[in-house]
Amino acid sequence: MIVALTVYSLCALTSGVCAVMLLRGYRRTRVRLLLWSGLCFACFTINNVILIVDEEMTSQDFTLVRTIPLLAGITLLLFGLVWETER
After folding, report:
1. 29: burial class by Cβ within 10 Å (0-12, 13-18, 19+)?
2. Burial of 44 by CB count in 10 Å (0-12 exposed, 13-18 middle, 19+ buried)?
3. DSSP assignment, residue 1?
4. What's the mean pLDDT in 66-73?
5. Is residue 9 pLDDT above 90, yes or no?
6. What pLDDT score was predicted for residue 73?
7. What is the pLDDT of residues 38-66, one digit of tens each?
8. In the chain, where are the structural domains located?
9. Is 11 exposed, middle or buried, given 0-12, 13-18 or 19+ CB atoms closer than 10 A?
10. Contacts of residue 39, Cβ cutoff 8 Å, sequence gap at least 6
11. Residue 62: what are its φ and ψ, rounded to 5°?
């Protein structure tokens, strides 16, 4: 259990660092694909944090709550890829 929690925490930390780096890159260069990717990774970070909470609180199932930010992140990235392709 402690190993799984450590892995989930590292995944959350990694996706958070990726989100920050991508959003900082967008702020510096104004390349919109960096914005969409950064927002996607921000949603992945939220998903991973909820996963950690879900693992700690075994009495409740947060599967649906976890799925919402995951789908939002994938939708943002897909929208950004389509939006940038059409331009």
Report:
1. exposed
2. buried
3. -
4. 95
5. yes
6. 97
7. 999 999 999 999 999 988 877 888 888 99
8. 2-86
9. middle
10. 19, 23, 73, 76, 77, 80
11. -105, 25
Cα separations (Å) of 43 from 47, 52, 56, 82?
6, 14, 20, 19
Q: Give pLDDT, residue 70.
A: 95
9, 52 Cβ separation under 8 angstroms: yes
Total count of residues recorded for the chain: 87
More confident residue, 75 or 57: 75
DSSP sequence for 23-71: HHHHHHH--HHHHHHHHHHHHHHHHHHHHHHHHH-TTS--HHHHHHHHH
Identify whether the C-beta of residue 22 lies closer than 8 Å to the C-beta of residue 38: yes
The first and second tokens of residue 86, run together, are 């059409």
